[in-house]
């Protein structure tokens, strides 16, 4: 068994019992060698079912020939191939847009207990580490590409991160493999290509093991990030307390346990918590967190991030995104209260029990609303919501049900959400906050 094969077997050992392995096949050197290695290994090892996926971006005329090349390669190796064509959205970075489109395909095609295998190698890891270093990345960024991570309902693995490009080229030549070359990889106006063609060769002439050393540093950073993640989990544990407003369905943390930590641990805990909610702010924008943390109790501070907002209310911080940042549409006529009412941009409203008589209308707060309560008479709705500690950001989304211009109930708010005799109750199922990134 070759050295590369031995490294591959070791890297893939955790995934030997997976239902299927999918190879992300671009037709380039690394993915071609990876596929060939796997085909050779399955002659002597019991491996999961093997397939290949080629994503055709259609960004270059020459790329139109690559699906046929991949098909010929897979036919010769007796590996099923799936070719998926995608539309890449225009934007500031065509590389990023193409990558996002590609990984959306991979995530959709990788099912539970299946693994997507990609061919990034040690030189790619060195480039990534150096590129992120020059962009001022922290420990997480300097950890480079992870060896494995979740992808869709399955997992993704990069089993060649300990193998150099030179070793892959030697293997390819030794086995007579052909591969395609992306002409854009030669353009040094792209930052990563500039590092690959202009910077790393200079470093390698002075330090021959530069790529290996950079990759090793990335591994050290990955280990350090793992420790930071463990610390964040411990620090967040004390802040994941219960709230009377869990029915909002929003991610939230108690502020006090976070504020008692050192500033560095605060940032570490919040990065960990926000990782699957939003892209992280740069160093300068972390001042927004300090403003929110130190605001007066009666203030309404908001920290706006790339993919949503953090609001402070009731001694907690709340994550809002998606429809929560838009005003719901109203008023609405509720002609059939025996059936749930879909609220445009605001979830669903239900009436449990015997519906009140008369035409019902659903609206939202505009200010100045008054509600009549048994034994208390007429009361300002603002005061009633203050008494119950309803977060300010939620008040404009609470469905209000009227009959003949009289406010009957406020959904989900204890003491305000039902009839005085308990014959019916108003239940609101809010829209889910968009908690994930593509």
UniProtKB/TrEMBL annotation:
Q: Which InterPro entries match?
A: Lysidine-tRNA-synth_C (IPR012796), Rossmann-like_a/b/a_fold (IPR014729), TilS/TtcA_N (IPR011063), tRNA_Ile_lys_synt (IPR012094), tRNA_Ile_lys_synt_N (IPR012795), tRNA_Ile_lys_synt_subst-bd (IPR015262)
Gene Ontology molecular function terms on file: tRNA(Ile)-lysidine synthase activity
Detail which positions bind ATP: 26-31
One Pfam family name is TilS_C
Enzyme Commission number: 6.3.4.19
Recorded catalytic reaction(s): these are: cytidine(34) in tRNA(Ile2) + L-lysine + ATP = lysidine(34) in tRNA(Ile2) + AMP + diphosphate + H(+)
The text of the family note is: Belongs to the tRNA(Ile)-lysidine synthase family.
Q: What is this protein called?
A: tRNA(Ile)-lysidine synthase
